[in-house]
């Protein structure tokens, strides 16, 4: 479950790899220009562990997800940001982090 305080959302995201569950904290702010601008998704537990991340744990969505979001404004919402932005990012990054021994299963 997540919680909401004003425009900041916090919660937990998780993924499975090789039958093991990996769980991470998740935060994002609803931008003032939403829905024109997508939320910047932050996974603080993985901050500094991968190159595809900005300072503070914000995941890189500019290359693939941002153009998709722009083509689908205003139909896309928060669920789309998580399903089409966060999920593919986790699917790409988590196996590499596991292989390097940077994260452990729950």
From TrEMBL:
GO terms for cellular component: cytoplasm. GO terms for molecular function: UFM1 conjugating enzyme activity. InterPro entries: UBQ-conjugating_enzyme/RWD (IPR016135), Ufc1 (IPR014806). GO terms for biological process: protein K69-linked ufmylation. It comes from Aphanomyces astaci. Keywords: Ubl conjugation pathway. This is Ubiquitin-fold modifier-conjugating enzyme 1. Belongs to the ubiquitin-conjugating enzyme family. UFC1 subfamily.
């Amino acid at each position: 479950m997540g919680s909401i305080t004003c425009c900041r959302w916090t919660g937990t995201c998780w993924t499975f790899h090789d039958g093991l569950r990996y769980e991470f904290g998740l935060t994002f702010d609803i931008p003032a220009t939403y829905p024109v601008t997508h939320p910047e998704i932050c996974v603080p537990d993985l901050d500094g562990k991968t190159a595809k991340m900005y300072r503070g744990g914000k995941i890189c969505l500019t290359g693939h997800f941002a153009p998709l979001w722009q083509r689908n404004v205003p139909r896309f919402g928060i669920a789309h940001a998580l399903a089409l932005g966060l999920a593919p990012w986790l699917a790409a990054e988590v196996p590499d982090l596991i292989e390097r021994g940077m994260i452990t299963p729950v």
